[in-house]
């Protein structure tokens, strides 16, 4: 394997890790400006992280290993997933292992780790958040699987780099009914998985309405910094996955440094644009009643199922 | 306005109270007093229009301070009696719920802060027995304790939810974490020195409480307030209503996750607060209402108010036109009219449940005929109804401000001549429709004008018990929205 491949993997991890707080800051800033507020600036999440890292670590009495390992596990699973998913290049030393099911499982592992940590604290909020998160996750993970699966049928493999490079070669696959349905399904699933409006409200201070935040209420200092970084990285990763699958142009498919550099710039531009669109949409949306969330997610699951069906029949016919 | 006072015997009390309540009166206040010759309890019943105020005075045996409980006749009476027992040690006989209310776990046993011999607050002592929460038992029922310290910038209160899944089976609110002894602090002050205290009973209701206090003092001293001052007061009262209503309309949208309308509503509120500062010199309108009159630095500009009114209408329309926001509001936490009536609810909470009481029509301190005052009433009792009532009240308030501003000039300080000193102790009652609902304040003065007893009652005292009732069968994530739609005062309740 060439040095470019290793550089691409390292680049993916660094871009997701370092860029995630910036993406969050960018989305908050877009939202603030659209609402007529000044906003805290794009760098604010990094400032928050710096502040949290300087604090002393605190663990609540009575918590066990689930609570202590969850932040590291959350970030670690996201880092591994960031290395696997073809964000910058489809031709990397690990691309043969970048299986769709593995990536979804890694994301689910992070979710479960945080839910267990919420339960481990023994507080009402931790348990409540964990219960809600599991309800949402149980509906979201199959949707993610199915919608990417719909795209894997034309490619004939569940290997994500193969799906992406296939789409680059044959853009017609994306404009197909299956591709469009899968895009819609995956977009909703990403909103739910990352705890955005209309499923969860990341900026709320109301403990009783929280989903993701409720599980992280007992964290402080460096642990909280890791949990927040993990959540931001997941958002970046999933938006990146979305852009890789549906707007794959620009991703390096060979081993040239120039292509990698172009891929890096285009990746940043695509994710920023996607983040801005999401932030703008959130301005116009409101959070739906918790009991309506399953309806929304069931709808997105149905779209994914239709995508698979359409993909199966259409590609079967050809 | 007429106020009649009857000195009655304790044994007569239940019958007299029952007759007054059957007559359409509501219990506005119960206040205990320490006279030189023992304890006296005042029961104030009011009805209106026509503005009628009836007081029953009951003298108690100093050695055995006991009164027959009225809790079976009136729900608020039961709460006033519990408050009175915790602060004065007066025992309500046969009370159906003889648990403590104000008294916190670690107040010393047998210490009653409102007694003249109570002295300064002692160190926390042994707690007066356990005070467990009612445990709801059953398959899958769990408890969520929330507060008293919350994540947002709100006042302290402890809520205990008994929940199955996400559905609330029972909610218990435990308050009085901010009991400051306001009633005690009033005692011995001059009338002028009482005003700053009245303005701070609940910070967001500076005009409402100050006005109720001033009206009570003026009735006691027999002061005639000039018309210009009455108009200025009516205008300030409405200014207070709109700045609070606008803020809450925005926050209701925010709690539904629709932040953009909150950002806009808070922008409008900031404009109003700046206007308030121009008018009275204080952003929350302190200093505008004074005993005997009113003081204004400036008058509200009709053009600015008109623009603000249009902004608010647009915000309310956008909120109601948003399908998700409307869905979150509709049918959430319904308070039925029967429940609201039984609990004696006041203000927009009552008006959203179909009860049209308003002290501006029932107990007007200045004529409201021909001012354009209408009282918006909705009967669905949900968050949407409370939102609608408040949105419509803003429009009415803007009309009233325009009416009352006419003929005023600023800067102005209108004061009636100082009242003559009297030979005997005097009493007075003030009733004002503050933005949360009817505020009742009763004062007693010595002949030289020193306050011997001030009892303010914020509408929150009546409305707090309605919150758990409205929340039955609501889901936990809708609690913050419901709580905001009631927006009750902790400070005004805890006193």
If you had to describe this structure to a student in words, what would you say it looks like?
Chain A has one domain (3-317). Chain A has 12 helices and no strands. The mean pLDDT of chain A is 89. With 318 residues, chain A is mainly alpha-helical. Chain A is globular and about 55 Å long. In chain A, α5 (124-155) runs antiparallel to α8 (177-193). Chain A has helices at residues 3-34, 44-54, 65-84, 100-120, 124-155, 160-169, 172-175, 177-193, 212-215, 221-246, 257-284, 293-317. The two termini of chain B are 28 Å apart. Chain B folds into 3 domains: 2-118, NADH:ubiquinone oxidoreductase Nqo5 subunit (Beta Polymerase, domain 2), CATH 3.30.460; 141-174, no CATH class; 182-494, Cytochrome-c3 Hydrogenase, chain B (Orthogonal Bundle). The model of chain B has no long low-confidence stretch (mean pLDDT 89). The longest helix of chain B is centred in the middle third of the chain and has 29 residues, at 227-255. Chain B has 17 helices and 15 strands. In chain B, β5, α2 and β6 form a beta-alpha-beta unit. Chain B has 495 residues and is of the alpha+beta class.
């Amino acid at each position: 394997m060439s040095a470019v491949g290793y550089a691409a993997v390292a680049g993916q991890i660094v871009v997701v890790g370092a860029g995630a707080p910036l993406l969050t800051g960018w989305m908050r800033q877009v939202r603030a400006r659209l609402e007529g507020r000044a906003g805290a600036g794009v760098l604010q999440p990094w400032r928050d992280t710096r502040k949290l890292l300087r604090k002393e670590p605190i663990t609540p009495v009575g918590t066990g290993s689930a609570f202590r390992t969850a932040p590291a596990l959350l970030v670690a699973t996201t880092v591994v997933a960031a290395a696997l998913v073809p964000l910058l290049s489809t031709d990397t030393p690990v691309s043969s292992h970048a299986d769709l099911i593995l990536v979804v499982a890694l994301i689910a592992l992070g979710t479960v780790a945080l839910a267990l940590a919420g339960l481990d604290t023994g507080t009402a909020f931790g348990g409540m958040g964990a219960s809600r998160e599991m309800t949402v996750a149980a509906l979201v993970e199959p949707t993610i699987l199915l919608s990417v699966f719909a795209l894997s049928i034309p490619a004939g493999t569940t290997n994500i780099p193969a799906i992406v490079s296939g789409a680059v070669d044959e853009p017609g696959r994306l404009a197909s009914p299956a591709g469009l349905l899968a895009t819609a399904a995956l977009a909703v699933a990403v909103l739910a998985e990352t705890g955005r409006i209309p499923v969860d409200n990341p900026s709320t201070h109301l403990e009783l309405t929280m989903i993701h935040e409720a599980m992280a209420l007992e964290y402080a200092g460096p642990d909280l910094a890791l949990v927040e970084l993990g959540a931001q990285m997941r958002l970046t990763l999933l938006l990146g996955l979305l852009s890789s699958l549906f707007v794959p142009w620009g991703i390096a498919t060979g081993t040239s440094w120039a292509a990698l550099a172009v891929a890096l710039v285009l990746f940043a531009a695509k994710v920023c644009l996607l983040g801005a669109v999401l932030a703008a949409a959130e301005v116009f949306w409101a959070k739906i009643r918790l009991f309506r969330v399953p309806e929304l997610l069931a709808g997105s699951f149905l779209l994914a199922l239709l995508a698979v069906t359409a993909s199966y029949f259409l590609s079967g016919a050809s | 306005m007429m106020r009649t006072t009857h000195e009655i015997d304790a044994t007569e009390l239940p019958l007299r109270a029952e007759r007054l309540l059957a007559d359409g009166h509501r219990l506005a206040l119960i206040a205990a007093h320490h006279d030189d010759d023992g304890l006296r309890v005042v029961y104030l019943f009011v009805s209106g229009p026509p503005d009628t105020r009836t007081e029953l005075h009951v003298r108690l045996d100093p050695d055995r301070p006991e009164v027959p409980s009225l809790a079976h006749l009136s729900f608020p009476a039961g709460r006033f009696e519990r408050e009175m027992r915790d602060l004065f040690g007066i025992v309500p006989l046969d009370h159906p719920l003889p648990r403590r209310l104000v008294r916190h776990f670690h107040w010393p046993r047998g210490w009653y802060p409102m007694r003249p011999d109570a002295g300064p607050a002692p160190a926390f002592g042994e707690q007066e027995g356990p005070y467990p929460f009612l445990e709801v038992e059953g398959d899958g029922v769990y408890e969520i304790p929330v507060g008293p310290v919350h994540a947002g910038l709100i006042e302290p209160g402890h809520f205990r939810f008994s929940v199955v899944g996400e559905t609330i089976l029972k909610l218990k609110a435990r308050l009085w974490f901010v009991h400051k002894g306001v009633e005690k602090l009033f005692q011995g002050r001059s009338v002028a020195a009482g005003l700053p205290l009245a303005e701070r009973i609940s910070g967001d209701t500076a005009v409402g409480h100050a006005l109720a206090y001033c009206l009570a003092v003026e009735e006691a001293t027999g002061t005639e307030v000039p018309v210009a001052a009455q108009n200025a007061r009516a205008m300030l009262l409405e200014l207070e209503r709109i700045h609070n209503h606008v803020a809450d309309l925005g926050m209701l949208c925010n709690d539904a996750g629709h932040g953009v309308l909150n950002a806009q509503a808070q922008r409008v509120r900031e404009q109003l607060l700046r206007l308030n500062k121009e008018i009275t010199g204080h952003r929350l309108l302190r200093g505008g209402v004074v005993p005997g009159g009113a003081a204004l630095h400036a008058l509200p500009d009709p053009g600015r108010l008109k623009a603000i009114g249009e902004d608010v209408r647009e915000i309310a329309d956008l909120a109601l036109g948003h399908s998700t926001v409307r869905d979150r509001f509709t049918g959430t936490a319904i308070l039925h009219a029967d429940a609201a009536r039984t609990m004696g609810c006041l203000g927009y909470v009552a008006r959203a449940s179909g009860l049209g009481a308003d002290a501006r029509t029932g107990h007007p301190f200045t004529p409201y005929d021909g001012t354009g005052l209408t009282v918006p009433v909705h009967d669905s009792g949900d968050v949407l109804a409370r939102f609608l009532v408040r949105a419509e009240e803003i429009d009415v308030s803007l009309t009233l401000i325009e009416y009352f501003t006419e003929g005023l000039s600023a800067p102005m300080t209108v004061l009636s001549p100082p009242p003559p000193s009297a030979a005997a102790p005097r009493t007075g009652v003030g009733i004002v429709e503050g933005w949360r609902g009817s505020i009742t304040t009763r004062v007693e003065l010595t002949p030289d004008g020193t306050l011997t007893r001030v009892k303010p009652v914020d509408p929150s005292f009546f409305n707090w018990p309605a919150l758990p009732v409205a929340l039955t069968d609501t889901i936990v994530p809708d609690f913050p929205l419901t709580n905001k739609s009631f927006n009750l005062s902790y400070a005004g309740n805890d006193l």
